[in-house]
């Protein structure tokens, strides 16, 4: 619960920081207004850590640059045409933007930049009331024309103006609602949620890159599930990631199976918890979180209702990997992220064969080889994929995965598994067989790699003998 007395005290402390005090004096001496705006004010009131400092002013860009140059070590044009100047003041990076009064072209939803004349006018054009507050400096006056403080107290997300107008101006704000709902753990006001459902199709005019950026920010929050539920319930997610709402498979009275949608959200939450416990100082792992969310998207296309009430999803891992790759490419994710997510989905069922019966050392080596650099992510995803309420089954699966991780560590120590190679390299293969570079060298290399995986180190002499036998058998 927001404590206003403590929040006001935090705002005062924020205003006393060297960078804000320096900027406030400089703009006041120049006869210009300056205010901290948006996220820093919201986070100070909530007692959250503030990272980026954003300021707004009645000064135009050229004047902003003249004011900040004497008090900053470096300056740059973040976007002079949009009214923004960046600078490093007192060791911190800041951005100062002229009051805005944007209008939109109605087709691409790109803003036509118009400079405004009042702080209140600038605040009203912002996305949500909790982001539409400002603290004038150096006077330390809180400006809240849209009721942001009341919405902070109520833990509610609401647009400053009619949500249909706000989202009509910039449909990406609908995605931001989901992100802030997760980030702040707030509920979206009913009129605002209704407007998202009504206008969801307008998101189709927003570029895939912008949508991908907001989806990434949502997945980086501590609990993205709240935001994902909002996107599914309003129909917005179906516009750009329809595979997730499609997980809500219909169940009839004769065929019963796990709720795949709820299971996927649980896997996402459990993957995040494991990610934090195993790597507490690491940044949010977006590829892992995408893989957790998407790991079962192949099930709707592979579901088969069996006689007797059973349901199967044969090869949903392969189908899901292909669907994920296609969808992430459409959202303009980079190739590394796309390939990692697709590979994790393809491999996420592999471990369950181990749980049914102990693997040989060669099977463990193959598991490691196939996972490659994504082995740790695969560990987390596979553990998170256990959502059964059967405590005995959950304990058996956890114990099996403890065992496979132990065996992987032992094999790595024994055989330097991370640098696994055949005992004879390509040059030696050519020398022994009397052949030049070509397809046969690759086939021979693969044969020796299989020997290594199946039997471990056999020694160079034995490897050479096996190679000659293999070559002779080929005729």
From TrEMBL:
<dbReference type="InterPro" id="IPR043519">
    <property type="entry name" value="NT_sf"/>
</dbReference>
<dbReference type="InterPro" id="IPR006675">
    <property type="entry name" value="HDIG_dom"/>
</dbReference>
<dbReference type="InterPro" id="IPR006674">
    <property type="entry name" value="HD_domain"/>
</dbReference>
<dbReference type="InterPro" id="IPR003607">
    <property type="entry name" value="HD/PDEase_dom"/>
</dbReference>
<keyword id="KW-0548">Nucleotidyltransferase</keyword>
<protein>
    <submittedName>
        <fullName>CCA tRNA nucleotidyltransferase</fullName>
        <ecNumber>2.7.7.72</ecNumber>
    </submittedName>
</protein>
<keyword id="KW-0547">Nucleotide-binding</keyword>
<dbReference type="InterPro" id="IPR050264">
    <property type="entry name" value="Bact_CCA-adding_enz_type3_sf"/>
</dbReference>
<dbReference type="Pfam" id="PF12627">
    <property type="entry name" value="PolyA_pol_RNAbd"/>
</dbReference>
<keyword id="KW-0460">Magnesium</keyword>
<keyword id="KW-0479">Metal-binding</keyword>
<dbReference type="GO" id="GO:0004810">
    <property type="term" value="F:CCA tRNA nucleotidyltransferase activity"/>
</dbReference>
<keyword id="KW-0808">Transferase</keyword>
<dbReference type="Pfam" id="PF01966">
    <property type="entry name" value="HD"/>
</dbReference>
<dbReference type="InterPro" id="IPR002646">
    <property type="entry name" value="PolA_pol_head_dom"/>
</dbReference>
<dbReference type="Pfam" id="PF01743">
    <property type="entry name" value="PolyA_pol"/>
</dbReference>
<dbReference type="InterPro" id="IPR014065">
    <property type="entry name" value="tRNA_adenylyltransferase"/>
</dbReference>
<feature type="domain" description="HD">
    <location>
        <begin position="260"/>
        <end position="370"/>
    </location>
</feature>
<keyword id="KW-0819">tRNA processing</keyword>
<dbReference type="InterPro" id="IPR032828">
    <property type="entry name" value="PolyA_RNA-bd"/>
</dbReference>
């Amino acid at each position: 619960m927001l404590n206003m007395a403590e929040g006001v005290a935090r705002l005062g402390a924020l205003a006393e920081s060297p960078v804000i005090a320096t900027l406030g004096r400089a703009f006041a001496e120049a006869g210009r207004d300056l205010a901290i705006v948006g996220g820093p004010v919201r986070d100070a009131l909530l007692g959250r850590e503030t990272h980026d400092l954003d300021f707004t002013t009645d000064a135009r860009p050229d004047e902003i640059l003249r004011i900040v140059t004497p008090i900053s070590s470096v300056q740059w044009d973040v976007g002079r045409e949009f009214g923004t100047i960046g600078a490093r003041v007192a060791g911190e990076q800041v951005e100062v933007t002229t009051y805005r009064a944007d209008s939109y072209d109605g087709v691409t939803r790109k803003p036509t930049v118009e400079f405004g004349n009042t702080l209140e006018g600038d605040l009203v054009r912002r996305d949500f009331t909790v982001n539409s507050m400002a603290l004038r400096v150096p006077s330390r006056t809180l400006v809240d024309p849209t009721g942001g403080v009341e919405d902070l107290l109520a833990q509610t997300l609401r647009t400053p103006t009619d949500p249909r107008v706000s989202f009509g101006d910039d449909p990406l704000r609908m995605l931001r609602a989901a992100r802030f709902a997760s980030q702040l753990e707030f509920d979206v006001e009913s009129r605002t949620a209704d407007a998202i459902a009504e206008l969801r199709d307008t998101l189709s005019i927003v570029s895939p890159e912008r949508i991908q950026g907001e989806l990434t920010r949502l997945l980086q929050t501590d609990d993205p599930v709240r935001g994902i539920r909002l996107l599914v319930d309003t129909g917005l997610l179906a516009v750009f990631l329809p595979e997730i709402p499609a997980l809500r498979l219909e169940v009839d009275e004769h065929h019963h199976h796990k709720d795949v949608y709820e299971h996927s959200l649980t896997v996402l939450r459990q993957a995040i918890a494991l990610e934090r416990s195993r790597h507490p100082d690491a940044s949010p792992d977006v590829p892992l979180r995408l893989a957790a969310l998407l790991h079962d998207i192949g099930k709707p296309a592979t579901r088969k209702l069996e006689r007797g009430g059973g349901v199967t999803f044969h090869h949903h891992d392969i189908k899901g990997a292909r669907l994920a790759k296609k969808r992430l490419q459409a959202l303009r994710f980079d190739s590394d992220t796309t390939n990692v997510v697709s590979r994790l989905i393809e491999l996420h069922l592999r471990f369950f064969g181990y749980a049914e019966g102990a693997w040989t050392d060669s099977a463990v080596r193959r598991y490691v080889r196939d996972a490659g650099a994504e082995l740790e992510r695969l560990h987390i995803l596979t553990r998170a994929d256990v959502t059964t309420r059967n405590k005995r089954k959950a304990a058996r699966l956890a114990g099996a995965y403890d065992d496979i991780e132990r065996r992987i560590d032992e094999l790595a120590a024994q055989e330097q598994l991370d640098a696994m190679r055949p005992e004879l390299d390509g040059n030696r293969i050519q020398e022994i067989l009397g052949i030049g570079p070509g397809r046969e060298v690759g086939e021979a290399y693969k044969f020796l790699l299989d020997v290594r995986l199946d039997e471990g180190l056999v020694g160079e002499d034995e490897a050479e003998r096996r190679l000659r036998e293999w070559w002779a058998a080929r005729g």
